[in-house]
Amino acid sequence: MTSQINVRLQLSYPGFDLDLDLQLPGKGVTALYGHSGSGKTTCLRCIAGLERAGQAFVQINDEVWQDSQSNLFVPVHKRALGYIFQEASLFPHLSVLANLEFGLRRIARNERRVDLAHATELLGITHLLQRTPNNLSGGERQRVGIARALLTSPKLLLMDEPLAALDSQRKREILPYLQRLHAELDIPVLYVSHSQDEVARLADHMVLLSEGKALASGPIGETLARLDLPLARDDDAGVVIEGRVAAYDAHYNLLTLRLPGSTQHLRVAHGPLAVGQTLRLKVQARDISLSLDPSEHSSILNSLQATVISETGADNQAHVLVRLDVDGCAMLARITRYSRDQLNLHPGQNLWIQVKSVAVLV
């Protein structure tokens, strides 16, 4: 079986053309990222069969759902997918349990790969089963909606900005559950978002969309660190790092994480984790400072040796973006042009980067 998602779409509306040719991993989470109007949702709807692109080929691992050349079009109800919208759209007159059983009944018993107990435990909703949707918070409703989609045992999960309708507190509540889905279920996910921080937390692979076309498609770490993409110029630009726990300081609630392929460490504010466990971090470009000397007697706990690779202009004329290498790990720094000139930055230069422990996103 081919573990790959192949999507070729050509679709035209007045003032908008979607033209994509994507080869995506057939497992893990792929983020479709871009600003409003870039074609994210239209792409998802075409994959689901909710919109029919004139020229299209959609293959999910070993199943072809659409091939315009052979006039094949599998209708929506016959595509083994789960679709999560911004709003959960639960049946208001049914209990949570009855809503979940509705999803379960869509799939024959001998084809079920996710059972009710597993889905409710995974999403943390076992205690909500007898409630009705109007007695749930926004985050709880969304978790029930995700569980209902999972109970159809989909071969693909489509998530269209599932956190967009939630406030920041509800987003923080639901993100760990989405991370559990990623870690525990072998179901590929296409995740639409315009939030770089969400994408950094969840995605393995990233497609950057703009005006109906893919500007880039690749592993999340590589794609976020590219200076030739507009991502680097966003205010929340940064890189994703998978660190491994080396120690935990219970007194100060600080984790020490070893960087991949390196003897250098980052200390971050976090609860206890077992030594050897991995933790994904996002380090924002705006939260990195550069120095020609190692810092001493500073409130900034992290000082790492790095090498300057390249630089580019930022959206603010006073700023530049600098790409750095830390033992094979790419990092970005946003600094002023004044600081760049004072430090006489140039490719190949060795220096120190400083990262606040409280600034790292985990």
Strand content: 35-45%
- Rounded to the nearest angstrom, the distance between the terminal CA atoms is 35 Å
Instruction: Please identify the structural class as seen in this structure.
Output: alpha+beta
Shape descriptor: globular
Biggest pleated sheet: 6 strands, mixed
The count of strands amounts to: 20
Spans with pLDDT under 50 lasting ≥5 residues? none
> Radius of gyration over alpha carbons?
22 Å
User: How much is the average pLDDT?
Assistant: 91
List the total number of helices.
8
- Give the strand order of the largest sheet, numbering strands 1, 2, ... along the chain: 7-8-9-3-10-11
What's the short version?
The mean pLDDT is 91. It contains eight helices and 20 strands.
Your description of this structure?
This protein has a 6-stranded mixed β-sheet with strand order 7-8-9-3-10-11, sandwiched between helices. A 5-stranded antiparallel β-sheet has the order 2-1-4-5-6, covered by helices on one side. It contains 8 helices and 20 strands. A hairpin with a 2-residue loop joins β4 (55-60) and β5 (63-67). 20% of the residues lie in helices and 36% in strands. α2 packs parallel to α4 and α3 packs antiparallel against α4 (138-150). The protein has 362 residues and is of the alpha+beta class. The protein starts with a strand and ends in a 7-residue tail after the last strand. The chain has helices at 40-48, 96-104, 116-122, 138-150, 168-184, 196-202, 220-224, 337-343, and strands at 4-13, 16-25, 29-33, 55-60, 63-67, 72-73, 81-84, 156-160, 189-193, 205-210, 213-219, 238-249, 254-258, 265-269, 278-284, 288-291, 302-313, 319-326, 329-336, 350-355.
